[in-house]
Amino acid sequence: MAEFYIQRRWQLLVHKLLAIAQIVWVQRVVIVTAVLLFSLTLPFVLSRTLLMLVIGLILGLTAVLILLYRPQLGLLLLVAASLVLPSPDLPGGLNLTVLFLLLLIGLWFLEMFVVQRNIWVVRSRPVKPLLALLLVVLISLLFGQLPWFRHAQPAPLETQIGGMLIFICAVGAFLLTAQQIRELYWLQWMTWIYIAMSAFFVAGWVVPGVGPISSRLFHIGAISNSLFWTWLVALAFGQAVFNNKLNPFWRLVLLGITAMTLFVGFVLNNEWKSGYLPPIAAVAVILALRSWRLGLIMILIAPIGAYFLTSQAIATDDYSYGTRVDAWIIVFEIIKVNPILGLGPANYYWYTPLFPIRGWAVSFNSHNQYVDIIAQTGLVGMLCVIWFAIEQGLLGWRLKDRVPDGFARAYVYCVLGGLVGTLVGGTLADWFFPFVYNIGYYGFRGAIPAWIFLGGLVSLEQMYASKPVETPRSSNPVLNTSPT
Question: Is the Cα dihedral 228, 230, 231, 235 positive or negative?
Answer without folding.
Answer: positive
